[in-house]
Write a structure and sequence with these properties.
Blueprint: H1 35-48, E1 53-54, H2 57-60, E2 75-79, H3 95-104, E3 109-113, E4 119-123, E5 131-133, E6 138-142, H4 157-166, H5 178-184, E7 207-211, E8 214-218, H6 226-230, E9 258-264, E10 268-273, E11 291-295, H7 300-309, E12 317-319, H8 329-333, H9 336-339, E13 342-355, H10 363-372, H11 375-382, E14 388-390, H12 419-426, E15 435-441, H13 444-460, E16 463-469, H14 474-478, E17 487-492, H15 500-507, H16 525-534, H17 539-557, E18 560-571, E19 576-577, E20 594-595
Parallel strand pairs: 1-4, 2-11, 2-12, 15-16, 15-17
Antiparallel strand pairs: 3-4, 5-6, 6-8, 7-8, 9-10, 10-11, 13-17, 13-18, 14-18, 19-20
Helix pairs in contact: 10-12, 11-13, 15-16, 16-17
Length: about 600
Amino acid sequence: MMSQRARAARAVVIALAAGSLALTACSKNEGGKSGKDTDKDQKEAAVQSQPVTYADAAGSAGPAEDVPGARRGGTITVYQEQGLSHLDPGQIYVNDSGQVANLLFRRLTQFKEDDKGNVSVVGDLATDSGKSSDGGKTWTYTLKDGIKDENGNVLTSADVRHTVERQYAKFIFDGPTYLQTWLSGTDYRKALPGGGFDGKHLPASVLDTPDDKTVVFHFDQPRPDLPQTLAMHGYAVVPAKGDTKERYEKKPVATGPYKIAENKAGKTLKLVRNTGWDPKTDSVRLQYVDGFTIQFGVTESTQTKRLLADEGDNKNAIQLTGGIDATQIQDVIKNPEANKRTVRGYQPFVMALTFNLDRVKNKKVREAAAYAVNSKSLIAGEGGAYGGEVAPNLFAPTLPGYEPSYDPYGRLKTPQGNLAKAKELLGEVPAAEKKLVLAYTNSEQGQRRKVALEDALSKAGFDVVAKEIDAASYYEQIGKLDNPYDMYITGWGQDWPSPGTVVTPIYDGSQVFDGSSNYSHVKDPKVDALIKKALTQQPAEAAKTWKEAHHHLLENVLPAAPLWYAKQFQLSGSNVGGARYGTVSSLIDINRLYLKS
């Protein structure tokens, strides 16, 4: 996902392979958890690893199941530190915007989870999760009757076509690219440079809309994951009427239960009921509260203090993507009333120190940094064991194929870093190559991470120059090919339960361009060949190929040093009902919240 793409980490998320994890019993001052808590986390993680099922028409029919005891009315206050990266659905690939997108936008399919964390793909705009033919190369979707946008316009297949084709336009640079590349190849923009705005369209042999209710996708190879791909926020429908291209970010047209009433960039975003949304057509979303008021610029420490105090409007508040401030975790845990207002769980994100291979070309420099980094101090800054677990490799415990004991840089044995090994490697490196420019965000969290990295790398013999980036544009800045940074912390979570949604988007050589998620600029022939091979294999065989690619990347390329696996720990006000941890969002499940009074 999920995408925190660590823009706090990125991606739509699901899945996890259970396994014994390191750092499950930290000392008390590091936010340690009892063995009982850790066992509970790992059992929940095992649920997340279950295969996603595809629902039929019956499973896709609305309305969504009511939350017991829920009532209508009131406004939920939402705290968020940094501003949203995007509001244009085509640009959304980060979990902050994704949370808001859940309230505003609908897509052909949608992820649905039950109260045990099991996940299925259901039809959202479509009547079901899709029907495949031609060995999985062709997928057909039929739209539900009478779904309207906030302006009362009935959505048709032409709107779905428009949504897909506008992704080819140059102004869409920050969203997912799976569908476009599957339809038109890696140079997909050349197939429709005007993005459909000039009256030209993709041929019917690629994307067909034979009538107002039918959408047919044609691929050159089987695409069994298409229902999950279409459930991503980045493929939410953009009605053709009202699309203002670059200006769409400011006032997108809502199709979900809420619409935008006021948008003061970086300050507040007010959502109110969308009266054009019909609950009978939606099997996932609910519309209990009158609206949400998102307040930006509220630091995690302030969020936690307000929610702990639980006074006045704070009783009606939640955290959007932020978590409980690391320095206040024990205050929450020791407060029984506050502790029962928390949601927690594994996220699918691997937080890593990513190297810009165009600038850090010497592998010994990258190896020295990989050995030097102090995962223990970084995790302490995230809240100890409530905030993360030591990451020995680049596959998260939420990913099928996770190998808990694969640890090429000894992270599990020396979570505080192996300075002796780092210094040994740096002894063979010219002095000029020991100077590294570190990019970090201007958030409280970014400051803590910067300090921990500077400390560890400096002790190893590096000269670290830290440069601050605004948190809201962090990934946009490091996503530029010609960026002035040598390294940066990134986080990536699978877009659905497949290693292919990790290896392909961030390590495929064809994905090296401005705005791409290949932040290290990896172009490795063996990795590219293994990606192509895995994408044509059945899951069991593909798993072996993805494993080979993973090992080759870490041992022979080293584009990034694994640091920690992320966890989420959030607090809400005492008057907020329906709060649970969302398997799909890896955050509080925003779709089902209500106010108790």
